[in-house]
Amino acid sequence: MSIRSMQGRETAKSLMAKGARWATLGGIVTLTLGMPTVAEDLHTSRFGLYGSAGLLDMPTAETAPDGQLSLSHTRFGPVRRTTLAFQILPRLSGSLSYSGTDNLSDEFDVYWDRTFDLSYQVFDEGTYRPAVAIGLRDLMGTSLLGSEYIVATKSVGERLRVTGGLGWGRLATQNDLGFSIGTRDGDLLDTGGTPNFDQWFRGPVGVFGGLSYDLNDKMTVLAEYSSDAYLAETDRGIVTHRSPFNVGLSYHITPKITATASYLYGDMFGFGITGFLNPKFPGVKGGLESAPIPVMQRPSRSADALGWSGAWIEDGKDAPAIRKALAEAMANEGLELEAMSLSATRAEVRFNNTRFAARAEALGRLSRLMSRAFPPSVETFVMTEVVEGVPTQSTIVPRTGVERLEFEPAGEMLAVTQFADPRALPSDPLVRLEDVYPRLQWSVSPYVTASVFDPESPLRADIGLRGKVNYELMPGLSLRASTSVRLSGNIADEDVSVDDTTLPPVRSEAPYYSNQVQLENLTANWYGHPVENIFTRASVGYLERMYGGVSGEVLWKKSASRLALGAEINYALKRDFDDLFGFGDYDIVTGHVSGYYDIGNGFHGQVDMGRYLAGDWGATFSLDREFNNGWRVGAYATLTDVPFDDFGEGSFDKGIRISMPSDWFLGTPTTEHNDFLLQSLTRDGGARLNVQGRLYDRIRGTQQPEIEDRWGRYWR
Predict the structure, then answer these.
(1) DSSP 483-532
(2) What is d(CA 181, CA 281) in angstroms, rounded to the nearest whole number?
(3) 295-310 burial string, b = 16+ CB within 10 Å, else e?
(4) Alpha carbon of 118 to those of 225, 517, 623, 650: distances in Å?
């Protein structure tokens, strides 16, 4: 379908009108540049109709506080829009919107359009200089909302902010300055999904501006002069554009919710509401966990001569009483003792952490317990975390440091701490607890699965219950299963069409698998750590909701390194969607080589190259911003040898993902987290097998860089 937006359409303008627009621009420049004021951070949590920093329909050079996430919904005239925005960096903002316009198309009652916007604040505000930002709207979409801008915002006193800017594309369909920069194609793209480089900052140049004034701490008056003529909407007769002036009133309902009412273009009323949170600031300040047991100071040598001499241990004899007491104390902290070695001067504890997402907090609590469990001659504590029965990381602390630095900043304890691969350490004979294996872990919890961006129904969802079981037979060997029961939902009603693609339907048939009862996975898994810095995984069974088979993986990850390399190979068979245990007639060998890198400053990158489920070859590029409290916000894009036309709407697979740690909301320690993915319509190109328990995410969190990132919780 093609809709004529008529952006950049030439209309007759009188010299008087042109003069008025130049005068408007001059007035904005005078206001924004000519008033010296005390500079301030131009932060805002009041967003415009596009769900990002703006007045109403026009952008500003303001930014949200660094790291802030916001979700907004606006409705004005025939348009409704839902937007997820993220302050990626202090100066860089990004947002993903899904807009629906009534009666804009003969094909759909509501024409839905995805847009991705970016804005970068080039300059912050100075005493005389305004903040200046450059922005792109709908930078890789159909171009219905495609526009670019350069905007300046200046605070005048403590309550007034003045904005003026230049716009291209949709932001130059009225009030243009009478000249063009190159040419711009006004036609819409059918599939979208690719950056429109040849359109950016091309065509006529429009002028816009406005101001905001804070009546008090909660209420703000807004006024703007718009350069958007709503050409496509007026041509369809769904908008009557009478005036370029818009006015509105914004109100902070709570510190985290803002509502805005507006009157637009002399014809429409609008309303918007925005909720926001910042991963930097937990929902429960300080946490609600119980206080740790204090460190026990060792007695003097004269008070316990036997304990200091080391003669208490004879010829490496086991210490069952110590092991039993320590295991009981650790269980109270959510730590499971798996094995222990003990000599006169050194003790190693191998443990499974079931409670603390911040490994440093688990280590701090364990070191306190070890100070109470072991005789005075034991000076070196080695704490080795075990994941899937495999030792992944050893943290070595001197007992003297634990005793001396308990009430000092955590950084001082880090300075005397060492980290090592367990395979690289000499070890005294380990004694395993007899009742650790086999070990059963299970859970039952509600779930919500969403399907978005379907033009026929922009949001479909299933809700139900999911049960999980992990049965560890012995160190490294486990059986894992997950079953879901759908209680309500409509994902199964989604239309499945495979006629418009030349690819095998490896993912487009996903709605067929939304059965009321679904065996999501049932696998036998073997994890290993055969040599230093090398980890392995092998899985066999029903690997995910749509596929079963065999999966093998190897990972190189050095404890202190920011770099990791991995490789995975799978033989996948498509499951039958009517028979829980049956298979269909499609099978394929897939695999990837992967590179992972902790870039620093909270950013993490990943590249996966190889063969996907449809037999296509390509690579997936991922970038995440990670916060020290476990939050992750990121995006990915997959490019393969499938032509964009064959892929379908969206051109290639891409998405935004968010991982939210449960302890951030609850205030109590837990390793649980909630993951959300917003992606293009389910397509067959660039589809990868969803194997559970991949190595990198399991191993990385236990190693030195991750532990150091949250070391401030060591003494919590």
Answers:
(1) EEEEEEE-GGGS----TT-SS--SSTTGGGG--SEEEEEEEEEEEEEEET
(2) 44
(3) beebeeeeeeeebbee
(4) 22, 42, 16, 18
pTM: predicted TM-score of the whole model, two decimal places:
0.87
3-state secondary structure of 183: coil
pLDDT score, position 4? 36
Cα-based torsion angle of the residue sequence 690, 694, 698, 703 in order, rounded to the nearest 10 degrees: -130
With tokens 């206001």, the residue in question is 31
* Residue 136 · residue 120 · CB < 8 Å: no
> Is the distance from CB of 532 to CB of 421 less than 8 angstroms?
yes
Residue 448 has pLDDT above 50, yes or no: yes
Which stretch of DSSP H or E encloses residue 401? helix 399-404
**Rounded CA gap, 214 and 220, in Å?**
4
Distance CA 520, CA 120 (A): 42
Query: Omega into 643 within 30° of 0, i.e. cis?
Result: no
Please give the Cα distance from 405 to 693 (Å, whole number). Answer: 37
Secondary structure of 289-319 in HEC code, one letter for each residue: CCCCCCCCCCCCCCCCHHHHHCCCCCCCCCC
Residue 221 Cα distances to 215, 249, 551, angstroms: 7, 5, 59
Q: What is the 3-state secondary structure (H, E, C) of 579-640?
A: CCCCEEEEEEEEEEEEEEEEEECCEEEEEEEEECCCCCEEEEEEEEEECCCCCEEEEEEEEE
Backbone angles phi, psi at 517, to 5 degrees: -120, 125
Report the SS3 class of residue 284: coil
What is the C-alpha separation between 501 and 681, in angstroms, rounded?
Answer: 14
Identify the band that residue 16 occupies on the pLDDT scale cut at 50, 70 and 90. Answer: very low
pLDDT at 10 (0 to 100):
39
Element (H, E) at 558: none
> What angle, rounded to 10 degrees, do the helices at 359-373 and 320-332 form?
140
Residue 561's contacts (CB-CB under 8 Å, 6 or more residues apart) are none
Is residue 497 over pLDDT 90? no
Yes or no: say if 370 and 347 are a contact pair by the CB < 8 Å rule. yes
Distance set, CA 345 to CA 228, 315, 325, 377, 399 (Å) = 76, 13, 19, 5, 10
User: What is the rounded distance in angstroms from the CA atom of residue 708 to the CA atom of residue 414?
Assistant: 8
Lowest mean pLDDT among 26-30, 243-247, 326-330: 26-30
Does the pLDDT at position 526 exceed 90?
Answer: yes
* d(C-alpha 634, C-alpha 378), whole Å: 45
The two three-digit tokens of residue 620, written as one number: 């997936």
CA 172/CA 226 separation, integer angstroms: 9
Token pair 């690819």: residue: 503
Longest CA–CA separation in the chain, Å:
103
Q: Retrieve residue 675's tokens.
A: 């993951």
For 529-548, b/e burial (b = at least 16 CB within 10 A) is beeeeebbbbbbbbbbbbbb
The number of CA neighbours under 13 Å toward the Cβ of 498 is 12
* Identity of residue 419: F
Report the alpha-carbon distance of residue 64 to residue 48 in Å, rounded. 12
User: Which DSSP state fits 290?
Assistant: P
